[in-house]
Amino acid sequence: MQRKSFFRTAVISVAVFSLAGSLSSCQKKIEDEILEKSIEQSTGNDVELNTATGKMSIESDGKKIEVQSEHASWPADMPAGIPKFSYGTVKAVTRTETSGARGWTVACENIPENSIREYDAELKKRGFETVLTLVTSDRGAGGSINATKGAVSVFLMADQGTATLAVSEEIK
Fold first, then answer.
1. Would you indicate the residue range of the signal peptide (predicted)?
2. 40: which residues sit within 8 A by CB, 6+ positions away?
């Protein structure tokens, strides 16, 4: 009798733990919850954090930030007319959205020399006005570009084989 009671308790315990485990996998990860609470406490705003898709997105008060560092690639939602920065490898992409603007930041590595000059020429071909182009070496391995076209601004900074491209678009 005692053995039967022990067996029944063991079976029920396994069933309860299995059910609890399967239910918890449907919920947010504990890491997301902790990070979400930390952001809420430091900003004073409610935020929604989701990392389940391989991206981290934070939403608060009509603003959204999304960071993609796994399998990052050129953003498909980049404004039309922005030439793809096809020099090197995309390592991370950040998207932001506020009530008046959208933004993209693309971080690249292993960029070749002369990419500043070549991207500057691509921007000009697409009708961008270069506000500032700075090349810091004869080979064009480092420097920056600041260009605009209508409601779109582009800023590129490169040095020692890495580059960061920032694009912002005003929304009317």
1. 1-20
2. 46, 47
